[in-house]
Design a protein that fits this description.
- This protein is α/β, with parallel strands linked by helices.
- Helices cover 43% and strands 14% of the residues.
- The protein has a domain of 130 residues: UDP-N-acetylmuramoyl-L-alanine:D-glutamate ligase (3-Layer(aba) Sandwich), CATH 3.40.1190.20.
- Strand 1, helix 3 and strand 2 form a beta-alpha-beta unit.
- Helix 10 crosses helix 11.
- It holds the Pfam family Carb_kinase.
Length: 249
């Protein structure tokens, strides 16, 4: 609350209570009748020697917003580093092993959702393992969140998100928006995808799709038009005030 007031001094306690109520509506309440794991078990697939921060932040963020357990499936040489960041994370050093897909698949029935890509890198073996994990997750109907390198993999392998995730609940494209601006057809029309561009990413994607610069006097209209151009995907333009459109409103 103190930080919110320091950044936005026009906020009142009533404003903050409205925000808290929205959070309460989304996050299940903690009660003495629940056991650990009932309020969210998340799997993060990513993390290699060069990139250990991204999977850590993805996993720890899940815990901070209410999930009970966060698993990180990473390479052997990244595991100790990631584990040293927090004792709360369950770290599996299997992603570069010969049987990585099988090792991760064993845990899938225990997970509520899987995040593919944070810190994955572009090593061919890791990308192939990520592909196999995506397919296994899809077969089990597990919701999947896609990060930057996974989108790169989809582009170079000739796969499309629609083919990959036709059986899954949803996917969120947080990064890799530079690629989508180059190849919008990767997700165009796939309404289970969510785009979360910042202002610069939004501008690139908008210009790629509509062939016009963003109208700085009509941000709401631009978000609406981009969503419609992308086939009514949900677009969340991040900023001081986030703008959200599904193409209808």
């Amino acid at each position: 609350i103190e930080r919110s007031f320091s950044l936005h001094r026009t906020h009142t306690l009533k404003d903050m209570e409205n925000i808290f109520q929205l959070v309460r509506n989304v996050i299940p309440p903690l009660t003495g009748k629940k056991h650990k794991g009932q309020d969210g078990r998340i799997g993060i697939v990513g993390g290699c020697r060069e990139y250990t921060g991204a999977p850590y932040f993805a996993a720890i963020t899940a815990l901070k917003v209410g999930a009970d357990l966060s698993h990180v499936f990473c390479t052997k040489d990244a595991a100790t580093v990631i584990k040293s960041y927090s004792p709360e994370l369950i770290v599996h050093p299997v992603l570069d092993s010969p049987n990585a897909i099988h090792e991760v698949e064993k845990w899938l029935p225990r997970l509520h959702s899987v995040v593919i890509g944070p810190g994955l890198g572009r090593d061919e073996v890791l990308l192939e393992n990520a592909k196999g994990i995506i397919e296994k997750s899809k077969m089990k109907g597990i919701p999947i969140i896609i990060d930057a390198v996974s989108i790169f993999f989809i582009s170079v392998s000739g796969l499309t998100l629609k083919n990959l995730f036709s059986e899954c609940s949803y996917c969120v494209l947080q990064d890799g928006l530079w690629l989508i601006s180059q190849q919008p057809s990767l997700i165009q029309g796939y309404q289970r995808a969510i785009l979360t561009p910042n202002y610069m990413e939004f501008s690139r994607l908008y210009e790629a799709m509509l062939r016009d610069p963003v109208d700085s006097s009509d941000h709401h209209g631009c978000v609406l038009r981009l969503s419609q151009a992308m086939g009514n995907l949900t677009v969340v333009q991040k900023g001081e005030r986030d703008l959200i459109s599904d193409g209808e409103k």
